[in-house]
Amino acid sequence: MKKLNVLFFAVIIMALSSCSVITGIFKAGAFVGILSVVIVIGILIWILSLFRGK
User: C-alpha angle 35/24/18, rounded to 5°?
Assistant: First the structure.
């Protein structure tokens, strides 16, 4: 019975830690996505300003 409790707690700890890892990945993904959009918009504005400058 004691082995079953230890196994149960080990599974719960792994499940909780994986949830926090996935949360971190999604937060990083959201940050990278927002950063990418800002960079692409900046490049588009820069390219448009090159054509308008002539």
Answer: 155
Distance separating alpha carbons of residues 40 and 31, to the nearest angstrom: 14
Q: Residue 4 corresponds to which tokens in the numbers above? A: 């079953």
Neighbours of 9 (CB within 10 A): 10
For residues 38 and 48, give the distance between their C-alpha atoms in angstroms, rounded to a whole number: 15
Q: How far lies 32's CA from each of 7, 29, 42, 45, 53, in Å?
A: 37, 5, 15, 20, 31
pTM here?
Answer: 0.52
pLDDT tens digit string along 26-43?
A: 777 888 888 989 999 999
